[in-house]
Amino acid sequence: MASMLSSASAAGAAPNARPAAPAAPAQRRFRFCPHCATPLEDVQKFGALRPVCPACGFVYFRDPKVAVVGLLSTPAGDGAEGEEARVLLVRRGVQPGKGLWALPGGFLDADELPAAGLQRELLEETGLRVRVDSLLDIYTLETPSGATGFVMAFATSLDQPAGRSAHPAPVAADDVTEARWFARSELPTDLAFNSTRALLHAWHNQAGEPALPAPHTAAQPAAPEPRRTP
Ligand SMILES: [Zn+2]
After folding, report:
1. Structural domain boundaries of the chain?
2. Which of 60, 71, 220, 224 shows its CA 20 to 30 Å from the CA of 183?
3. With contact defined as beta carbons under 8 Å apart, do 173 and 127 qualify?
């Protein structure tokens, strides 16, 4: 449901913003109180200039967005016909990174814990049920919309009855147009985010595999500086 950008841009959108022409980060701001519709005024509050409602006292805090992604991988088989280890990637159907491969995931909803949100996103985007095993890393959220935040990356594993295929066919839906398993030798290079590159690089270089060179990050858009004044 919550894509990497559609939620982010909503967070800072002006009530009358035109969706077809996203404003630069500095222009994306709330102009009216969401409680009483009084025009907001910039006031020095809690150490920064913040939009404050002069009528009801509402203070708009630009809180960070929190996204979750899941590295769903399977170990190599150990039999004579043992399968290669594989990782599940999705091709994004929305910006940012539209058309590029990424780990499945998305933004947390309000009141949603990270593991539950990740399980929901995996199910929505791939039709697969997973267990959330461990936190791998936390990355700066990359969004050109002006929203700032973090991506929590988790190791996940399939949660399905024993005896089923080690690589059940994913069903792409929601924010993705394609979902498939990749062996280490066939990982795509058109990847959506720095976090995707870093996590796949680490997965590829796990024990027993020839090391890949470190991913290039210099050409990627830098994460936006946190803005203290909207
Ligand atoms: Zn108000």
Report:
1. 50-76+85-205
2. 220
3. yes
Q: Give 56-84 pLDDT, tens digit per residue.
A: 999 999 888 899 999 999 877 754 456 78
- 164-218: per-residue pLDDT in tens? 777 888 888 888 899 999 999 999 999 998 999 999 999 998 855 555 666 654 4
The Cα 17–Cα 10 span in angstroms is: 10
CATH label, 50-76+85-205, candidates 3.90.78.10, 3.40.50.150, 3.90.79.10, 3.30.365.10: 3.90.79.10
Ligand 1 mean position, distance from CA 213 (Å): 53
**Separation in Å, CA 160 to CA 18, 45, 103:** 44, 50, 20
β-bridge mates for residue 2, sequence order: none
From ligand 1's centre to the CA of 111, what distance in Å?
A: 23
Beta bridge partners of 101: 91, 191
Q: Ligand 1 centroid to 40 CA: how many Å?
A: 8
Query: What is the CA(54)–ligand 1 centre distance, in A?
Result: 7
Cα(60) to centroid of ligand 1, in Å? Answer: 10
**How far is 14 from 209, CA to CA, in rounded Å?**
49
